[in-house]
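User: Hi! Is it possible to get a structure for several chains at once, not just one? Here's what I have:
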Amino acid sequence: MTYTNHEKFLIAVDCVIFGYSDGFLKLLLYKRDFEPEKGNWSLMGGFLSCDETLDMAAYRVLARITGLRNIYMEQLGTFSEVKRDKAARVISTAYYSLINLEEYDQAVLKKHGVEWFSIDELPGLIFDHDEIVQKALKRLKRKAKSEPIGFELLPEKFTITQLRNLYEAIYQRELDPGNFRRKLMSMDLLDRLPYKDMNSSKKGAYLYAFNKEKYEILSGNGFSFDLAGV
Amino acid sequence: MTYTNHEKFLIAVDCVIFGYSDGFLKLLLYKRDFEPEKGNWSLMGGFLSCDETLDMAAYRVLARITGLRNIYMEQLGTFSEVKRDKAARVISTAYYSLINLEEYDQAVLKKHGVEWFSIDELPGLIFDHDEIVQKALKRLKRKAKSEPIGFELLPEKFTITQLRNLYEAIYQRELDPGNFRRKLMSMDLLDRLPYKDMNSSKKGAYLYAFNKEKYEILSGNGFSFDLAGV
DNA sequence: CCAAAAGTGTTCACGCTACACCCATGC
DNA sequence: GCATGGGTGTAGCGTGAACACTTTTGG
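Assistant: Yes, the chains can be modeled jointly so their relative placement is included. Here is the combined structure:
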C-alpha cells in the first residue's frame, strides 16, 4: 500500500435543495433525529461510502428524502473547518439542487421530518450550514443569469409571468414584465403551446415549454443564455 | 464516538498554479518522484492532515514548492471518482492560484523538479489532472472578467499594454488597445505612477498600480469590476 | 363598461465596436 | 523623417430601462 502514514477522514455530503411555489423560493430542511444537535434544523446529508463518488452520494441522499431522481444538481464546494462538526472531524462537500415542487408526493416529506422554508424565513441551522446556504444562494443567483436552470424549478408548462415571478423571487426585486418577456422571446428557446392558463387573468396567458434541444444546438453554436440585464 | 460504521478516506489537495510571463499564460507542473506514475507530470499536491483545513493544506503545498505566501488562491472543486488514483482511494480537493512570476527565486524550482509550461503546450498529466486543469482554466476565464484577479499575475507596477497582453493570453484573442484602456480607466481602480516604462516603445508607457483600497470601497458601494465586453 | 393581466411599441441614453487619428521619441 | 507603440476621439449600432399603449374577457 502506497500513501502510508496519512490520516483518513469521514466525508459527508450536504444538500441544499431549492424549490419554488406560491411565488417564494424555498429550501427543504431536515429536523435532525440524532445527536449531536438533535432536534435542530439542518441540510440533508449523509456519509460517503467507499464504492461511490460524491455525486452519487448526493443523489442517494436526495432520493432517500424526496424519492426524486433526474434532478438538477451541482457541486458547491467543500467545507473543512476542523471544528465544524461538534462530534467528529468531518469534511463535507455541499451540493445544491433544484426541484419542481409540484412533481412529488408531499406525504413523503412528513414521514422524514423535513419541511419547506421560504428563504427569507429560514430558521438557524446547525454547524456551518448557514454559510453553505448563503453560498448556494449566491451561486443560484449567478447561474440563473447565465444558464437556463430556472426552468428546473417550474413545472414543464408555464406562463411567462410565472417564469418572471420565479426570477423575481430569486433576485428579490421586481422585473419589468414587458422587457422580461421580450428578452426571453428573443432567445427563441421556448415553445408556445396551444393552451392558455386561465387562472391568473381573464385574457388567459399562453403556456410555454423550455426546448432543451434547441438550447443545446444554439449553445454549440456559440450562443449563450443571458438574463444579466433583465 | 458518534458517526460509527462509516468509512474514512484519504484526502488530498491539488494545486493548479497559474503564472504569466513573456506573453504566455503558464502552469507550474511537478515531475512525480514517487509511485504510482513516477516520472510523469502532475499538479502539485499533498495530503490533508488532521489539524488543518483544506485551505491551509493548499497553502502549505504551495509554500513548500514556491516559498511564496499571501498568494491568491481559491477552491475549485472536489474530485472523487473511485478509481481516479491508481494506488488508493483518494478524494482530492483542487485549488487554483495566481502567481506573479517575477517575484520569486527560479532556483527553488529546479531543486524540486517543477517546471513552467505554456498552457497551450501542456504535457499529458496523471490521473484526472487534465480535467482539473480544464476546469481551472474555465474558472479563471470567468473570474477574470468579473473580479480584478488578473493583477495577481502581474508585477505591482505594470503598463496598460502589459495588462492587455495578459488578458489576451487568458482569452486567447486580441483585444482592441484603445477600448481596453478606456474601459479600465473608466473604472478608476488604477493609480498612475510617475514613471514610464521605456522598454517597449520610444514614447514610453506610464506604469500603473492596482489600488485595492479603492476597489474595496467601490465594491462596498455596489460597483462591480466588469471586463465582460472588452 | 371596467378592472386586470397579457402582450406590444416606442423612446432615450448609454456602452461597446471599429477605426481614424494624434503624440513622443529613438533611430 | 519615419516607424513604432502609446494614447485619444468619435460615429454608429445595439440593447437595456422606462413606460405608454393595445388586447382580451369575466364580472
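Helices of chain A lie at 54-66, 106-112, 129-146, 160-171, 177-187, 212-220. Chain A has a mean pLDDT of 94.

User: Great, thank you!
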